[in-house]
Amino acid sequence: MTHENESKVDPKEDRGSLDLTFIIEQHKKELWKYKQKESEWINTENLANGYKKVIEDLSAKLVDQVRIIAELEQEIKRLVAENKK
Prior knowledge:
- The structure is a single chain.
- By secondary structure, the chain is an all-alpha fold.
- The protein has one domain.
- Helices cover 84% and strands 0% of the residues.
- The chain contains 2 helices and no strands.
C-alpha cells in the first residue's frame, strides 16, 4: 500500500527552489519583467527624442524671429530718420 500513496503525490506540489521547472518559470517571469521595463525605457527614450526635436525646432524659430525683429527695428529707425529730413 505504500506504492499507492507514492503514486498519488503530485510532482508539481514538490517544487523546491532547486527544482528545474521552478527555476525556468522564475527565469521566464524575470525575463518578462525585464522586457516590460525595456519597452518602457524605449518608449521614454522615443518621447524624449521627440520633445528634443520640438525644442530644437522652436529654438531655431525663436532665433529667426529675434533676427527679423532686429531687422525691422533697424528699418523703422531708418524710415524715421528719413522722414525727419
